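User: structure tokens for this one?
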Amino acid sequence: MNHIQQGIATVLAAALLCAGCMPQAGPASTPAEEARAVNAVFESPEPFSVRTLQPAEVDSFLVAHPEYAMDSAAMRAFYQRRDGQYAWFVHDTLASAAGNFLNLVAANDSILQHAFPHDALHDLVERLSDRRDSVPLTPTFMRHVELSLTAQFLRFADRKYSGLVQRDLRELDWFIPRRKKDLSELLDSLVAGRMDLSPIEPLHPQYRALKAQLPTLDGLRWMDALARLDLGKRRKLEPGDRDTVVVAIRERLAVLGDLSWYDVSRCPEPERYDSTLEVAVKLFQDRHGLLPDGVIGSGCIRQLNTPVRDRIRTVLVNMERLRWVPERNAPDMLLVNIPEFRLHVYEGGRIRWSMDVVVGAEATSTVVFSDSLSRIVFSPTWSVPASIVRNEILPAMRRDPGYLARKGMRRTGGSDALPRIVQEPGPGNALGRVKFLFPNTYSIYLHDTPSKGGFSRENRALSHGCVRLGDPRRLAAYLLRGDTAWTDARIDAAMDRKTELSVPIRPRVPVFIGYFTAWVDQDGRLNFRDDIYGHDAKLARELFVDPGASPAPAVNAPLADVTP
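Assistant:
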């Protein structure tokens, strides 16, 4: 057990002891057994407690424990609704709600520990441990246990539901509002004897899917002691090649689940890169964002050599992000996953189809946010941002006086030092032949591009921040599919106009621009992508004491229970 559950367990045991419930000596028990034992001796909930708290007593506790300041409003509201009645005691005995909370804490460990900077219950136990048998169950003692349990529940539930990171998420480059819940009402439900605490468990399907992968990853920690794969003097391995490293690659892919051990055992030439191994390599490449060409190069070897501890950390970081998003995304929506360089079209909560995209380069990164797509602009003009005019257009104009004319651009005002530049519709327009607008303060939108070469690259972080689409015409046709007037021919004509044509989209379509470097796809495969903007590293510094390593599981606890 961590310090929190040790503190709670010992304080509750002390309170029970003082009330005449002396435990018998016996062999050491597991955390789950301790929780069940504690729960078994709690009184069943009753409709009221004879003890009450005055608002000043709640205020005094909060003044003495500023670490609970963020939960002070919820705590005051909770006791105000109860007219000050104790929640965790029935007469002079702890209620079953305390045992239920203890069970909940016992099922969560490691990554939650540091979310509680001070454990008042544990400190209390430390002071009382040497004189446990003689400690009277005084009103002061009961009041402190009562308020400490309430404060700990609210803090625990807040971290579990809303996320461990409590700072402004915008500081972590996340501009989607954090989800919220009235946790004092949830506490009302708990103390009333309703045991369903599922509202504080993140319900996003991806959260559950990633959590389900943790036991498997934990079982692969031994792989971190293996020798690193090395191609030696080779630059790459292709089907048909022979090399001793092929044996190790084959076995590693089997351990990771991309190749069956049956296929490994029946391979007649272990050192030869055969067609069966090629299929496995392509599967591995695909779920790690590599070009699935079957060629084993430096990128593939780097992914194969990534320590399991780093994979676990990546999963935990992405689980934390999933605490921040709505429990259920809109069933019909567009999702751009920046590190994946893909746009996914969702219908009924499932991916209908997808396309490659180009996102912002590291220096001009695409912002993480959500909004609603409101209109399509065919044959758009481009009002060149001032930063691009200053850093790119003006130097080009100095080198080539005919630059603007050749690029289909013209001045529309401004000064000689910083002119306003517009690019007319046409095949060379930087926005291509169509753009998709969802009004936002970041000037981010989806658009076509005349520069198609970037879509063939594995790393497609190349733009100034907007999202370039690999198949913009298909998206336009999809968004207009409900209007029979928009035939294929009409869409093509609209994309080849000499002037802009703006078409509203009704109803608006939710757009979610996210940053996820680990997820489970619809085939149940665990995918990873590189942390192209360093967002994972920044979040890891908030989550882990040692951001370079994943937290170890608690003793005697499965990894699935390490995180909430």
